[in-house]
## 1
Amino acid sequence: MARPARKQLAQLLDDTEPAGSYSAELLAPAHSLRIEVADLGPVPLPLRAPQARKLISVARPAMFGRGEETLSDSTVRDTWEITPDQLTLGGTDWSSILGEALDELRQKLGLPPAMSLRAEPHSLLVYGKGQFFLPHQDSEKDDAMLGTLVVSLPSAHTGGELVIHHGGDRRTHHASRTELSLVAFYADCRHEVTPVRSGYRVTLTFNLLAHGPPSTNGSGPVADLTRCLTEHFTTPATSQYESRPLDPPNRLVYLLDHDYTQRGLCWDRLKGPDRNRAALLRAAAEQAGCEAVLALADVQETWGAYPVGDAAWDDDHWYDEEDEEGEPDEDGGGTDADGDYELSELIDDDITLTWLTRPDGTQGDVISLHVPEYEVSATTPNAHLEPYEASYEGYMGNYGNTLDRWYHRGAVVLWPQQRDRAFAARAEARPRHALDELRALIEADDTTRAGAAAKSLAPFWRTAVAGDTETQADLLESALAVAAGLDSAATAAMLLAPFRLETLAPCHADGLAAAAHRHGDTWAQSLIAAWFGPERPGKTDWTCTLPELCRALRAAGAASAARALLDGAWSLVRADLHDGVELPRAEIRRPRLRKLGSPLTWLFQAVDDALRQIIQRTLRECGDNVLECLMPALRSPDAQRTAGFGVIARDCAERLAAIVARTPRDPDDWSITWSGCGCDLCDVLGAFLTSRSRRIHEWPLAKAGRRHVHTRIDTAALPVRHETRRQGRPYTLVLTKTSELFTREQDIQSTAQSDLTWLKSAWRTS
Ligand SMILES: O=C(O)CCC(=O)C(=O)O
Ligand SMILES: [Fe+2]
């Protein structure tokens, strides 16, 4: 089979890669730089130990940044720092020498000539014996910041090497004894300073800032890339997980090699090879009629893996890094970058876009969009890059041992500009914008286009809208407005169906009413029925909005929508109530029924007369356990103000009076009403239970039979003790009716009596 276009495209971009590198080094004569430190004066170079000690006397322990904080922790970073305000850098030729050096470094980093680099002093660092800086990444303090420049001053020392990591590769830089050594590296490179073993290491660090016009048109094989894009967007996709061919993809996600911050992600500040590749892709996108934007991707890979020997990370790693050259090979096998695990096969990979810039490149949005593998293209496989996190799991069921690795990568995301396809591609990432665009079309009376665009959302709309209640709440109002403006009732229903009932609030009443007017009552009823479908809420808490929501719906002329919501809500509460009253165990049943008191109150406050009467009748028909729901509801602060509760109070009073009036059980009546499953064992058990006189039953019974009888007794919560006498064969099951048979009934009667007294005074029932 021909290679998919997205793979050809990745290959094309590989062939055109310029000779850029993630770090670059050069030397400059020591005399070109003159450093003056406040309170000390000029610092002669090469530096000697007494001078270094003087520097330390005006320095402070260096801090390091972690997230938003700046910390001082000598187990992470142990070095002395002099801040830029204490420094004056000069020398007759310094600015021209630095300018030339920066231009050479720019070239070595693969950046175009149109771009210029500027170095902004950050600090002067002095490392004495044993001092170091653990692996870290510098924070990008400025939008234009591209990386870091470290200028090591000539000074005799051993150890104290600057080690720069990128994509499984690392480079070690030793400072010169006689010259200035300049090392520049991109901001996404982890780097460290190994402990100084003797002497002093002194460095000047600079933020590297990039300036220059954005590169607009990439040279090279734009025509081939254009052909690949066209092919990608017109050929049915194939997925390793699906045998049937899919629709042609609506998106191509090309993964870049470097990681970027949200602020730092823009076309003219891409790093190393990313820059040229993105420019080529952008030019090809224009030719192929595609939109191209930048994005950030979170990538997770799961590999089959096993540890190699015992090469664990140990304290000596500072000194033996040359021995650890672990290169992953083409197919991903081989040793991982740490040299700790042998990778076997790639089990799974998962790519999520987390940030998407706007087509005009000005801003971006936080998104969470999963990208299927048939939309992904990358010249550099993840395995060739350095993960920001890795975790090894021992034996994992089907897969044996696994190694999970996580990467952050920049990405170029492309989609066909063709109207509806571009709309769909953008909408999946940003449903909010899709709704705004649809509203704008509707407001401009372009309902034909709005209809077609809205319809194109169908394949992914449910997933796109399936966020938390807050996300949904942000979308529902617009979705209702759009639905009300669409000609097609089916498309309007598709747009609204994925919202959940919990999201629906009184503020949505007007929107829902408008949509119901546009598409009819039956449409609204079946939409609401869909909200009560399999994805309906598991709990009934959301019903607290019903009184206000239904009042607002009626006021907006959508009484039938209100009724549909109430019918649905009542059927959920009714089902919970019926399940609840049947529970035999009081300790489980009581709290469940008590909790249903609130939804029932809200329903009463929301319903019309007809439904209220239906509910009252249903409650009347329930068994006496329904009191465990109704009495707490009648005692709630809202009860007196709730229409229809007077009738409930009267019904309860009648029910309670009947319970109080029951003749107490004869002291010699040990009969228990019960019915079993109809099997022979249940027949025997039933005969014993219903007998007035028998209290104890001794029953030789094998294990399976004993278990059946236990289960029957326990699930019905019968006042019967069951014990097994482990003598003879089979053992004997001894059943004993307990006095709870009497006390339970007495308790029910005395609770009923006190409830009745309270009802009579609080509700004036007679
Ligand atoms: O001293 C060095 O070479 C590097 C210091 C460093 O990494 C930093 O200041 O972030
Ligand atoms: Fe650093």
## 2
Amino acid sequence: MRIHEVNIFIIKMPLKTPFSTALETVIEREGMILEVIDEQGAKGYGEVVAFSTPWYTEETVKTCYHMLKDLLIPLVLDKHINHPNDLYMAFNHIRGNHMAKAGLETAIWDVYSKLKSKPLWTMINGVREEVPAGVVVGTENIKNAIEQISSYMENGYERVKVKIKPGKDYQFIKEIRSFCPNLALMADANSSYTLNDIELLKSLDDFNLLMIEQPLAVDDIVEHSILQKELKTPICLDESIITYHDAKSAIQLNSCGVINIKIGRVGGLRNAIAIHDLCRKNDIQVWCGGMIEFGVSRAHNLALSTKEGFTIPGDLSASNRFWEEDIISPQVEVFDGKIKVPNQPGIGFDINFNRLHQVTTYRENINCKHK
Ligand SMILES: O=C(O)CCC(=O)c1ccccc1C(=O)O
Ligand SMILES: [Mg+2]
């Protein structure tokens, strides 16, 4: 395979309703879609999941644009690529910048599967044709949270995650639990606590949560292991797991029972699969995380979630969770708490170009002649 051209689309779309985490409230989502075109004209799509500002990780849409245009795309343009896994070594001398790398790597996985006329999920040895869905409530207000949860339950979601932070925790979860005592419920703190909050975090054991996600800081793998010894509720790590080595450290130190795998955060599908394989060997549960993403990334998440270890529902929701109209066709839909995995080659969804062009704020073509 040889990539002759890459089109960059920077896009912006308002969320249906604002989404609040401990770190940031997102009202409008900026993002980037990459279209790679190979020498035979086959097209593949990837999404760069960085935000406009570096609140979740260090990357932003602009840093990704720079990394892609000036460093990463030139490494693949007009080069013979045997397999998408080889990009890991090709990109290895560039530190970090996982979301930029993942956007390009996943686009190349899509085109590679299309050239082989196979769905991406079978190319990566997925084992299931439908994937359990999950949804996240990111609202500050308890009344709104309960309203949203009840409407998601009506839509068939069987697992709900809520965002917590200091001051919006024990009482907040208590009220939700009394509204839905049997729902599979979990809480994500986005690293807003410290070990000084250990009594509060222990008190959340009262609520039979599936897990508590990223209670402590990003670089606190050691402190998460101290906390996990004190909690009955399993800890799930998100922000702390950037590399395979991080996952190894967390497993060795018993810092968590669960890892949330995001393709963007870990630098691509190859790394996501490597972490999945490591977790399986070590009896650590995994699920696929979400990034308030558009349909292209949702489609890649769906393919990843067909891997054997992804047995618990991830943050994989329908397109209409966040968007009036997504940029893919058909949109991702949830039936009976599950999402059907498409069987067309590649990611299995078409781009809705009308919608893509409507939300595009900047577009650029990069081809071999630029080198
Ligand atoms: O897209 C989704 O459904 C997940 C939403 C979510 O929790 C999230 C969204 C953006 C950045 C980080 C996170 C997170 O998992 O911490
Ligand atoms: Mg999280």
